[in-house]
Amino acid sequence: MEGVRPRVRVDNASEAGETVEVKTLISHPMESGQRRDGDGNTIPRQIINRFTAEYNGEMVIDVTIEPAVSTNPYFEFDATVPEPGTFTFTWYDDDGDVYTATDDQSF
């Protein structure tokens, strides 16, 4: 989908075992499938239906998103950084599109 942009902000860990604050936002129009266009036709549902975050391949968070979520879904959570590595954030769209962003942690 054109114009969809994931954004990520992760505090940098200064040592192994530190907890960091993670903030993610994806710019996405999020259509619930319950509205109608000017001609009375139902606008098809198109939402981000799942969000995951992994650290060095290990799942940190896995969220199923329902149609009632707002436009531009935002998630904030804490994660422990056990070693230098990479966060991988993935958003899944109803139409099959997958959006990713990464953040490297080194100390």
Structural class: mainly beta
Give the spatial strand order of the biggest sheet: 4-3-6-7
Shape, please?
elongated
Query: SSE order, as H and E?
Result: EEEEEEE
Q: For the terminal residues, how far apart are their CA atoms? A: 36 Å
How many beta strands in the DSSP annotation?
Answer: 7
The pLDDT mean sits at 92
Proportion of residues in extended strands:
over 45%
Helical residue percent?
under 10%
Number of helices: 0
Unreliable stretches: none
Rounded to the nearest angstrom, the radius of gyration is 16 Å
Main beta sheet: 4 strands, antiparallel
Q: What features would you describe in this structure?
A:
- By secondary structure, the chain is mainly beta.
- It has no helices and seven strands.
- The chain has strands at 5-10, 18-27, 48-55, 58-64, 74-81, 85-93, 98-105.
- The strands form two sheets. It has a four-stranded antiparallel β-sheet, with no helix packed on it. Strands 1-2-5 form a three-stranded antiparallel β-sheet, with no helix packed on it.
- The termini are far apart.
